[in-house]
C-alpha cells in the first residue's frame, strides 16, 4: 500500500468514527425548533435540574482538586511501595459499572450504614449525595490529568527553584503548578464534564433532587421519547457552550 | 570553606556512585569530567543538598548556591526579568533592591534588552545567559554547573567558557563544573576529577591528567586515538601478527598502549631521528578539521595521526600515498587495564 493510500485509509476510518459521534448529536439538536427549546427553558423543573447538575459537579470537581492534586503530584514525583496499587485504585471507578459504584456508596452512607447509625446524618436523596456520586466516578479524570501534567514538568525546575532559596511549597506553587496548570485545568474540565453526564451512580443515591440526566431518564420512561428530547438538547447545548468557552479562555 | 565528600555512595535509577572521596577547594575551579551516565549530575545535586547520599557524608558550608543545569531550566511561565529575580524574591528583598540587582547582572551579561521578554523565543545563547544571570543574582559562594555547553553550537561553547572564566575571576566563588567534554575540562579547570562508572578514577591538574591518564579508558576519553592491546616482551609490544612497537615497559602478558596522535611524526621518507619506532604505511583516510587534520595511516594497525592543515598542504598528502610514521617510546602510555 502506498503512502497516500495509507493516509487515505486512516482518514476514512477516522471520519467514520467522527460521524458516529457527531451524527446523533447534530441530529437531535436539529430535531428541536428554537420555539420548543425556549418552552423547555421556561420550565423551572428543567432549569433547576440543569443548574443543580452543573453546581453539584463543580463542587465534586473542587473537592477532588483539593484532595486529588496533591495525590497526583505524589504519584508523578515519588517512587514508593504500593504506588502501582494506588494507581490501580484511582482508576477503579472508571472500570466498575456506575450503578455498582452507586450501590457501593449507598452501603457506606445509606440508612443501615455505620455513618448513619453513628451520626444519624441522612445523605441519601440530598445534593451532597449527588456530589459524592459524581466525585466517586469522575475523580480519576482529574487525578490522571494532573498527574500527566506534573510528570511533564522536569523535576530539575523545582530543584533549581530550591537552590535559589525557595521552600518546597513555594517551588511547587510558583514553578511546578503553574507549569502543569494546563493539564490540571484540562483534567478538572474533564472531571466536571464527566460529573455532569453521570447517571448510574447518581440515580441510586439521589432520585431527588433530580439532576438533568435523571430528569431525561424519567421523562423518557414516563412520557416517551418526545418529552425527553427538549431537556436533552438543552443539556447538550449548555455543556458544549461551557466547555468550548472555558477551553477558549484557558488556551495558550 | 572547602566542600568535603567522604565515602559517599548513592544508587539512583541507573546511576551508582561509589566511594566518592573528594575535597573541593574553596575558591578553585574544579571540573568533574566523565562520560554521560557516569553520575555527574547526581553528584552535583547531592552537593547542592537536593538529594541525600545513601552512604557517607557531604559537608558543604556554602549557603548561597548557583546551580545551572544543562538545559538551563528557565521558568517558561515567567519573563526573563522574573526568572532572574526569582531567587531575590524568595529572599524577600524589596522591589527596588530586586530591580537594581536584576539590572546589574543583566547588564554584566549583556541581556538587559531581553528582560521584558518571555523565555519562549530566546536563542540558546540568550537562554544560557539568562540562566547564568538568575544564578548570579543571589551572589552564590558556590557555582554548580552541569554540562553548560552540551546543547550549544561550537561558537557559543567558547563564548560560554569565557563567561564562566570571567565570572570566576570576578567573584572569587568556588566553581564545580561537570562536563563530558575533555577540551572544556582542560581549558577551564584548575583541577580535573575524572568520574567513570560512578567512581573517581583520576584527579589532578589538567596538564598532569592529560599527559598521564591512569587507564586505557581514561586515555580514550581524553581523546587519545591510538589505543591498542597486546603482550609485552623485552620492551616490545606485539599489537598485530608482524608489528612490534617499542614501549616504555618491560614485560606484561596483557597490556594496552595509547599513542597520542599529535606526537606521531609523518613523513614521505624514513627520517633519521631519536624516535625508536618507525613504520611504513599507507594513508587510507584524510579528514580535514579546522586547524588540524586527522590522517589515518595503515601500518598493519590503523593509526591516527594529527597534523596541521598547513603541513598537509605542504606535503601534498592524499589517500593511498605511501608514508612513514615515527614516534618516541616516551610518547607511549602503557596500561595494565
CATH class membership of the largest domain in chain A: Mainly Alpha
CATH fold-level assignment of the largest domain in chain A: MetI-like fold
The oligomerization state is heterodimer
Helix percent band of chain A: over 70%
**What is the succession of H and E elements of chain B?**
EEEHEEHHHEHEHEEHHEEEEEEEEHEE
CATH topology of the largest domain in chain B: Rossmann fold
Looking at the overall shape, the CATH architecture of the largest domain in chain B is 3-Layer(aba) Sandwich
* Mean pLDDT across every amino acid position of chain A: 92
Q: Provide the CATH superfamily of the largest domain in chain B.
A: P-loop containing nucleotide triphosphate hydrolases
Topology:
The complex is a heterodimer of chains A (252) and B (337).
Chain A: H1 3-30, H2 34-42, H3 44-77, H4 83-95, H5 98-109, H6 114-119, H7 127-151, H8 155-163, H9 168-196, H10 200-205, H11 212-223, H12 225-250
Chain B: E1 3-12, E2 15-24, E3 29-33, H1 40-47, E4 55-59, E5 65-68, H2 80-90, H3 95-108, H4 124-137, E6 142-146, H5 154-171, E7 174-179, H6 182-188, E8 191-196, E9 199-204, H7 206-211, H8 216-221, E10 226-233, E11 236-240, E12 243-246, E13 252-259, E14 265-267, E15 277-288, E16 292-298, E17 302-308, H9 309-315, E18 322-327, E19 332-335
Helix pairs in contact in B: 2-3, 2-4, 3-4
Amino acid at each position: 500500500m502506498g503512502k497516500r493510500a495509507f493516509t487515505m485509509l486512516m482518514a476514512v476510518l477516522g471520519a467514520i468514527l467522527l460521524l458516529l459521534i457527531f451524527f446523533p448529536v447534530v441530529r437531535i439538536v436539529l430535531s428541536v425548533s428554537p420555539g420548543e427549546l425556549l418552552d423547555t427553558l421556561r420550565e423551572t423543573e428543567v432549569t433547576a435540574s440543569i443548574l443543580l447538575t452543573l453546581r453539584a459537579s463543580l463542587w465534586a470537581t473542587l473537592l477532588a482538586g483539593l484532595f486529588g492534586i496533591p495525590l497526583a503530584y505524589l504519584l508523578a514525583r515519588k517512587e514508593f511501595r504500593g504506588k502501582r496499587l494506588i494507581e490501580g485504585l484511582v482508576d477503579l471507578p472508571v472500570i466498575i459499572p456506575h450503578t455498582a459504584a452507586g450501590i457501593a456508596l449507598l452501603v457506606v452512607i445509606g440508612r443501615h450504614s455505620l455513618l448513619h447509625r453513628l451520626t444519624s446524618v441522612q445523605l441519601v436523596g440530598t445534593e451532597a449525595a449527588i456530589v459524592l456520586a459524581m466525585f466517586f466516578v469522575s475523580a480519576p479524570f482529574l487525578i490522571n490529568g494532573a498527574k500527566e501534567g506534573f510528570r511533564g514538568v522536569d523535576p530539575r525546575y523545582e530543584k533549581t527553584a530550591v537552590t535559589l532559596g525557595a521552600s518546597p511549597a513555594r517551588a511547587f506553587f510558583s514553578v511546578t503548578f503553574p507549569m502543569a496548570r494546563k493539564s490540571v485545568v484540562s483534567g478538572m474540565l474533564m472531571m466536571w464534564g464527566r460529573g455532569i453526564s453521570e447517571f448510574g451512580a447518581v440515580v441510586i443515591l439521589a432520585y431527588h433532587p433530580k439532576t438533568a440526566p435523571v430528569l431525561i431518564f424519567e421523562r423518557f420512561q414516563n412520557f416517551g421519547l418526545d418529552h425527553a428530547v427538549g431537556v436533552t438538547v438543552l443539556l447538550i447545548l449548555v455543556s458544549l457552550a461551557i466547555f468550548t468557552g472555558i477551553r477558549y479562555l484557558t488556551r495558550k | 570553606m572547602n566542600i568535603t565528600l567522604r565515602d559517599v555512595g548513592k544508587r539512583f535509577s541507573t546511576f551508582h556512585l561509589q566511594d566518592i572521596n573528594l575535597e573541593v577547594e574553596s575558591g578553585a575551579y574544579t571540573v568533574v569530567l566523565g562520560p554521560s551516565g557516569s553520575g555527574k549530575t547526581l553528584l552535583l545535586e547531592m552537593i547542592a543538598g537536593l538529594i541525600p547520599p545513601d552512604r557517607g557524608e557531604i559537608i558543604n558550608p556554602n549557603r548561597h548556591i548557583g546551580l545551572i543545569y544543562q538545559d538551563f531550566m528557565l521558568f517558561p511561565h515567567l519573563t526573563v526579568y522574573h526568572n532572574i529575580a526569582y531567587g531575590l524574591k524568595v529572599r524577600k528583598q524589596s522591589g527596588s533592591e530586586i530591580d537594581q540587582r536584576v539590572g546589574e547582572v543583566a547588564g554584566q551579561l549583556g541581556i538587559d534588552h531581553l528582560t521584558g521578554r518571555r523565555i519562549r523565543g530566546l536563542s540558546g545563547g540568550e537562554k544560557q545567559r539568562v540562566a547564568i544571570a538568575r544564578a548570579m543574582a543571589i551572589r552564590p559562594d558556590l557555582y554548580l554547573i552541569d554540562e553548560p555547553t552540551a546543547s550549544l553550537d561550537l561558537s557559543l561553547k567558547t563564548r560560554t567558557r569565557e563567561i564562566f572564566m570571567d565570572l570566576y575571576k570576578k567573584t572569587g566563588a568556588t566553581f564545580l563544573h561537570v562536563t563530558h567534554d575533555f577540551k572544556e575540562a582542560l581549558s577551564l579547570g584548575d583541577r580535573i576529577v575524572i568520574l567513570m562508572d560512578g567512581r573517581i578514577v583520576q584527579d589532578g591538574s589538567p596538564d598532569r591528567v592529560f599527559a598521564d591518564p591512569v587507564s586505557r579508558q581514561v586515555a580514550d576519553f581524553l581523546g587519545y586515538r591510538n589505543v591498542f592491546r597486546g603482550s609485552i616482551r623485552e620492551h616490545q609490544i606485539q599489537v598485530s601478527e608482524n608489528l612490534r612497537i617499542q614501549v616504555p615497559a618491560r614485560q606484561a602478558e596483557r597490556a594496552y598502549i595509547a599513542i597520542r596522535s599529535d606526537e606521531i611524526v609523518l613523513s614521505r621518507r624514513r627520517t633519521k631521528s631519536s624516535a625508536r619506532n618507525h613504520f611504513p604505511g599507507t594513508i587510507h583516510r584524510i579528514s580535514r578539521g579546522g586547524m588540524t587534520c586527522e590522517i589515518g595511516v595503515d601500518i598493519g594497525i590503523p593509526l591516527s595521526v594529527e597534523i596541521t592543515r598547513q603541513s598537509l598542504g605542504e606535503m601534498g598528502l592524499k589517500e593511498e600515498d605511501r608514508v612513514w610514521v615515527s614516534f618516541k617510546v616516551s610518547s607511549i602510555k602503557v596500561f595494565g587495564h
